[in-house]
Design a protein that fits this description.
The chain has helices spanning about 60-85, 85-105; strands at about 5-10, 20-25, 30-35, 35-45, 50-55. It is an alpha+beta fold. The longest helix has 23 residues, at about 60-85. The N and C termini lie far apart (about 50 Å). This is Gliding motility-associated protein GldC.
Length: about 110
């Protein structure tokens, strides 16, 4: 069995707030790539629930956070469609993403 790693390094200030976030992905050729935010979800099949880590730095602008959330919502629809084949639900998720974009003022 082959293994690979994706790692995220977080530098915290004295109040435990992220100041710097970098990530590495061996197979993707990514090394110490800076980012302002990350959201990680894993599935706990014993508890039947999603576990999450949401981090963003003090320097993450609110307008970019809105765009980040919008793009995550769009990708959830794509992932759902690929995982289930349920195009109607995937389209509904895309509509929610577009409504979010309008309500958050990133799209008119």
């Amino acid at each position: 069995m082959r293994k690979t790693q994706i790692t995220i390094d977080v530098e915290l200030d004295e109040n435990h707030i992220p100041e710097n976030i970098t990530w590495n992905a061996q197979d993707g050729g990514v090394e110490k790539e800076e980012t302002k935010a990350t959201m990680i979800s894993v599935w706990d099949d014993k508890a039947m629930e999603a576990l999450r880590i949401d981090l963003w730095t003090k320097e993450m602008p609110v307008d970019q956070m809105k765009m980040f959330i919008h793009q995550i919502l769009v990708s959830l629809g794509n992932t759902y469609q690929r995982a289930t084949g349920e195009e109607d639900v995937a389209q509904w998720l895309e509509q929610i993403a577009e409504e979010f974009a309008v309500k958050s003022a990133i799209k008119m």
